[in-house]
Structures are given as C-alpha cells and as structure tokens.
C-alpha cells in the first residue's frame, strides 16, 4: 500500500524515457516549476510549494489533480471551464489562480501560495483544548468567508465549502480555494467515496445536484459556523447556545436559518447571512471605553489625565501612551498610583520626566489651527503633514462610461458634487503613527508608504482623533466625490491617472501578461505597495488614484443604488452591510483599477490591500 496519491498515474513520456519522481524536492516539473516541499493532500489531488523559474523565482502553489477524476474528455473540459472561472475572481479572500495546464498526463493549475494553516487544522487544535471558538473568534472567519462568496457567487457556486478548503494566512486573512473541483466530483460519483465532504453538503447537493445554487454554499457556511461554535461534528436537536452556554441565544436563529432543509428557507445570499451575524457580533462585542470619558488636557507639552473608576470591575481605566504621548489603548489598573507610574514611564523620553498630575479639566479644543480654509487651493495639516488639494465642484456622468464594467457600475447617471478638499496622497504610515501611535501595515518599508491593513472602522477612529488634535473637519470622501476627482473633475477618462490606458510605469497593480486588457500593457507585478508619489499625479495633483491600495469611501454599498441615486451630493444608502472602496490596489487586475470600479468589504475587516485618503468640506 503506497501513500503516493499519483501511484496509479502513468509517469512516462511519449517515448521510452521514464520520470523517476517528478515531485521530489529539487525536481523541475514541466521544465518550469522547481519543487520546494510537498503541501496539503486531499481527495482531489495534492499541493506543492514551488518556485516558478520563469517568473524570477516567484513562490507559487501547484496543484496536481488525481488522474482518475478526469477520466473523460467531457469531465476534463468541464473542470477546465470551472477552474477558468477562478481566473476572473479577484478578491482578497479568494486564492488567486494563475493558470491551468497539463504535462505528461498530469492536469495541474497554479495559484498563489498562502503561508498559514487550513481552518481544519485550527479547528483540530481547538478540539484538543476542548474550548470552542468564541463568537468574537468565529465572526471574522465567517464574515470573510461570506465576503469571498459574495464575490464568487457573481460567477459560480463553490459546491465544496469545508474547513479543508479554507486557508487562514499568517495575518489572519481568510482565503477560499478549490473552486470548480466539486463539480467534477459530482459527475464522477465514485470519487466522492472517502473524501469526507458529505457532512458539509446541503440536502439538495446530496440528492439532486442539478438543484444546486448559491444557497447550497450558504448551508455549508452554516455547518462550519455550527462546528466552530460547538466543536460538534453532528448537528442534532440542540442549538449552539445549549452546547456552548457562552453564546447569545440569538445565534441559534442564525444557524437554524442557514441550515434549513429547504433552500428557500435559508438566507438568500452570503451578504444576508453576514449582515445577520454582524448585528449579533456587534451587539455582543465589548464596547471599549470612549476616549471622551477620559478627561485630559494638553498643557506645556504634558498630557494630563484623570483616571476613571469603574464600580463594576473595581478597576481604574486610563490610557496607555506611546513615546510620543499618543493614546494607543485603554488599560485597567488596580489603583491610581499604578496609572500614574505607567503614564510617567511612557512620557519620560518624550517630555523629559515632566511630572504628570491627575486633575479635572476640559479639553482645550482651540489649541491647533483649523484644518480647512476655503480660500486656499492646497492645505497642509500642521500636525501630520497631510496635504489636501482643493477640488472645484461640478456635474458629471458617474459610472461606467466606456461599456467595460461590472453591473454595479451601471447605469451611468448624472451627479453634482459641491466643492471639497481631497488628500493629495494616500494617508501614509508615518502620518498614521503620529495620530494613532501604532502601525497596522503589513508592508512596513518606510513612513512614506501608504498605511494599509486598515478597516473602515479604524479609518474613522483615525479621522476622529485627527480632528480632535487639529480641531479639523476631516472625513472620508463619498463615492461620488472620489470618482469625480479621480476622473479629473468628471472627465470621460478610464483611469485615475487621467488616461484611458494604463501601465506599471504609471500605477502599481498586477500587470502580469495573463491579465492584460485591451487598455493595459504587460509589466511588473510588484506584489506590495509602493511609496506615495512614486508615479505622476493626475491633472488635479492627486496621486495613486489608480492602484497601490484600495481606498475606503464614506458610502454603504447597494448594487442597485445607482438606479435611484439622488443627483445632488449623493451620500450612498442610509444603511447596509459592506462599505465601498475605490481605486484598486497592488493586487488588482487592470480592470479593477479603473476609476469607475467598485469594491466592497465589511467595515470591520482589515486587509493588506485597503487604505484611505481624507477629504474635507470648505468652511
């Protein structure tokens, strides 16, 4: 009995030469991929970590499919069509597929390599401890999974959602993989035996595969949610809150609806499920002490705080500072002496051992200059150095004016925006650190690089603190303002560079030759952010309006909002689940860095592709 999943495959060339072992470490597979290590095995094939010798040693994942699963031309063609769909899936929570190919009877495809663990491995680790996931732990997993499916369901149904097909990267980003393979298994009935996915299949997928739609994936998500919260592998009569008393009873209605036997009784789509879970998670989440409850004043270069006593916990609450004197968190202390000692320690370097007293005082809100002056064409924040460009308002046609867009960019509609200011550059890591005292970014290569791995909520906290420290009126731009500025006051241009075509000499995006469009050219895929100001600005003096990092906007997302959008200064829907981002990023294909392209993520989720720039209204 061999452990080699490819022992049954004929490994010979068309001639007499025999391949000794094409997958041993150091071997060169298909004259291109140097095998580094063997990766995860599965019922459908096996992953290898490889080095792509034709792409300057790029680390890639190579998956080789069991040959017996592709035993007919019909199944093979169907498999190729399904995997080809993955080439169009561009989302931070979906493993990017680079291409599909065959070599000496091996059918394989390549994709991005993810350093991390499968959700199955993480669940098994939890089972060893006997402690199920808390709602706070499970929520970001299910939320990101729903985000991935919201994008994927525009193109296909996954059909094999299970912990083995969910990767959790080292930065806790979820990645969904293995699109298209389950369809092959549905056709190749014998291949189902022993692969262990029946538990996650919806009733219709088991009994009537032709009735499978996106609600079948919703069922699978419900099974995973139940398993995370209870560590139970069999769904019985007991709701999650009975198996895990720490859970709120409201969670029971979520799993019940997701796991409904009849698909018409389930959530209609992944966004609806995510929205329902978000409401419960946010209700249960401990609300941090707002900074306004901590009385403080800034005098003579010394921060002076008053500790607040919490009767319920018997603890004092006070800010934790960095060496610049910036608040970075709220901490509990046993008594006010410990608070004073801690704060004095952090201030030693910044303020030369000045004594910090605890006194009752009001915030001196006028200690810094106002942020926006209508008469100026540009304005520089005296605290952070953020430069803002004045954008004269006007009327334009918003949306896909070239006919090469997604449905959510339609219909084209007339919009008028008032005068506003917009950040000349993306907010940088250096500017973020001056206000927040930390750096959440993955690509920490210098203060002039854009801050990323920032959620919409975190961007709002930055703006709130920035306004407090400057007595300013900063905010996020609306979608309408952002697109108006990217298109140089509403011109009919395709990109935020002011041009109708784009190259990597003009913006930071994925210009790999496999993703070239008629309006783009092949070029370098940098796989990370670049310094702000690396490329030329558009005619308004705005940099990186296409590529580098996706930019959070003020608006909630509604795919039908453009149909009913008001003409004057649209603010987006009054409520929703995801927020909108614009501009695309270093990870985006050319079509996704167009000025009209829209992205959506839940406001609490942070990715290494997301950042922002600030806006302000005159006055």
Number of domains: 4
Q: Percent helix among the residues?
A: 10-25%
What form results from the Cα inertia axes? globular
Percent strand: 15-25%
CATH class of the largest domain: Alpha Beta
Can you describe what's shown?
There is one protein chain. This protein has 619 residues and is α+β, with helices and mostly antiparallel strands. Helix content is 24%, strand content 19%. The protein is built from 14 helices and 25 strands. The chain has helices at residues 73-86, 119-129, 135-152, 181-187, 203-207, 214-230, 240-243, 250-258, 270-284, 336-351, 429-436, 456-470, 479-486, 561-564; strands at 28-29, 33-41, 45-52, 58-65, 97-103, 106-112, 116-118, 166-169, 174-176, 296-299, 302-305, 308-310, 315-321, 327-333, 378-380, 387-391, 394-398, 413-417, 420-423, 474-475, 550-556, 579-582, 598-601, 610-611, 615-616. β2 and β3 form a beta hairpin. α3 (135-152) packs antiparallel against α6.
List keywords for this structure.
alpha+beta, Phosphorylase Kinase, domain 1, six-stranded antiparallel β-sheet, Transferase(Phosphotransferase), domain 1, disordered N terminus, single chain, 14 helices, 25 strands
